[in-house]
Amino acid sequence: MYKTIGIRHEDKYVMERRVAIAPEHVEKLVKKGLSFVVESSDKRIFKDEEFVCAGAKVVRSLKEATVVFGVKEMPSKFFEEGKTYVFFSHVIKGQSYNMPMLKAMIDKKCNLIDYEKIENDEGKRLIFFGKFAGLAGAINSLWSYGQRLKIQGITNPFEILKQAHLYSSLMEAKAVVSKIGYEISTKGLPGSLSPMVIGLTGDGNVSKGAQEILNLLPSIEITAEQLLQMNQKEAPNNIIYKVIFRENDLSIPIDPNTKFDLQHYYSHPELYVNQFDKYIPNLSVLLNCMYWDSKYPRIITKDYLEQLYMQGEPKLKVIGDITCDPDGSVECTHKGTEIEDPVFVYDPVSRKPSMGFSGNGILIMAVDILPSELPRESSISFGDALLPYITTIAEADFAADYEHLKLPISIKKALILHNGQLTPSFKYISKYL
Known about the structure:
Rossmann fold, single chain, globular, eight-stranded mixed beta sheet, 18 strands, alpha/beta, 433 residues
């Protein structure tokens, strides 16, 4: 028997405008007999009226909903006894800031399904915003590069670019990037900026989204090894070089007699050290697009940046930390930034950040909710991927014991809490509670 599905208003960030299920998805599911209540929102990219037209009821409270879909974390006081919640919970690494929320869900005997863990048999995520983080992150990083150069008195073609959320659509933003690309190909870059090299860490969905933007520029891809061999003085000024750094570029075995092995690296990262620092002096912009966990080596440390800046201002002007792990793979990303205040300059000598484009040091763009800068497109894409699972989740009998719970295996693997109990794969989280 179908239950009433609730769609939550996002309130973690001022400019979070996404939704997990768009009106077009609601309309399809209503025709199949599902019932929707949508929490009213005056900032969501889809207006209340659009949901009403799709067949949903707009409400002030989701009390009549038994299954609630959201995007970001929910306040501890929001949860109700025995209900099912589907959202990005950010608890699987034992994140301390979300343990009170998880404890509240345990106390209320809730069910928690986390999008991040909805995976296929090969462990690849099925429902994600990652591509749109890459798209918006690349736009913002190129915009940041142009504004940082402008502050430093360097006229450049990226000055005309705006922050991603200021465009009415992704298509409009792409048109401006293409225009910049045409100018670079015909007029070239200022000599002080050539050759322009953009590095990307990782080759997953986030990286692919970022590359989609960079491919609108007159760019060619070279390997990490070719970057080290490049004759910087002879490189043409109307080409942008793109380098995708993979795990074997970033780290090497501590034992010099051991060859890099990807699976061994994943299993024993403590036996590897960072070697990314040898590439950094050759980069103009770095887009950090990779998954990172504290067990892996950092790719940029504060110590390294201090040493680099002691030799004078480097070629690297901007780090677009799209991954945005505070104090993580890029150690100087001390926090995720907000859309309305997206960048800061990190001073490697004083080791202090200052918000904005001015100051001594390296500019960091680390917006924590990048897909919300392209809210309509990212929401529709996300809902398209989620659509096949919504009915199954809505009709599931969560009162059944875990072994007999009828859910697709990909959803069951993403069930972190079942009636307030950590499921077998997530028992380890209890040590963080």
